[in-house]
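User: For my dataset I need records formatted as: sequence, then structure tokens, nothing else. Please produce one.
Assistant:
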Amino acid sequence: MEAIITLILIAILLALTIAANIALRERERTLHYLVVVALGLLNAIIMIFGVLYIVIGISPDLAESMLETDIDPAYAFLGGVFFLITGLLASILLIDRVRVAMSGWFPRLRQPEQFVATPSRSPFEGLMMRADGSIIEMPPTLPEPPRRVVHRGELRGFDPHNTVHMLAMVLCVYLIGSQFANFAVSGGISGYADSAGVTWGDLILNFIPMIVIPIAGAGFLMRRSLGEVLERLGFHRLTLESIGVGIGVAIGAFVFAYIIGIIWFLLVPAELFKEQTEASQAISDSIDTIWLVLAVSFTSSVGEEIAFRGALQPIFGFWWTAILFTLVHIQYTLTPATIIIFAVALGLGWVRRRYNLYAAITAHFLYNFVQLILGLVFK
């Protein structure tokens, strides 16, 4: 049942993404407002869930008799607050003036120029002949042509009036809010650890929206061809150098995580350390075969890099994307591991911006794979 609900939600969000792209392509304000209304209805549903969980928190006896649930009242109340805040924030972002006011937080919108080659200068350029037949060299009057190739997939910036960008903002709020709300409803770190685990079904259900929605959001078959979509997401300039840099970033991230982990272990009591790492340890313990290690490493690296560094970073910029990526990894929130995730996010964002998405995927895959395979070997 949970899988069916997830697929329905993915279908709804995909339909909204397609509608937003058509509204942008046709400059159709009516369709834009229909997307706004649909998002408003989703926000209302989210807030109803919030009120329901708050009622459970306030009146646990009533909730137990009517809903047959034994959820902890304090965590239910907290989860309800998160759901309510999520719906309210997402609703506020539907207001044009709010997005215009927030546009200064993000990279300024620009359309990058693209130079495919540097034109060569004629060997006779700047030469002038005197009346007596002698030749003199004159200083060039034209500036040197630009030498840097700027690709279409690079930084574009945020447009507050863009329907797709508005939808992207709202989806980011949904992503963060639902993670925090579900984390609270499940019972915090200990409860999350009890329910944490990785199955093949979970991998598929998480991977589908990470791939489908960003590709649709980039305008596949609506505003861009497949090649243009791949370019927009950062799949360009595949070179051995970019792959090598990705490997180097993965090694650096792993060393950094190892050092922070040692410091963290030495500074906090053993019982607290065990509690703070309980959720991540439960996830690691559920990955018990080499095939699952490969699947988790592949789906998380490809899916998350396409969604975060490929689709979102060109809109919201380097820093905000790193913050979003850190908050989404809820199992590490409010622990020193947050520092590690944020640093890794910065490294992945840098390598995506400086090179391409291939490099970021390589770094992300190796970073996950090394940790998971070590956990499997030394379990």
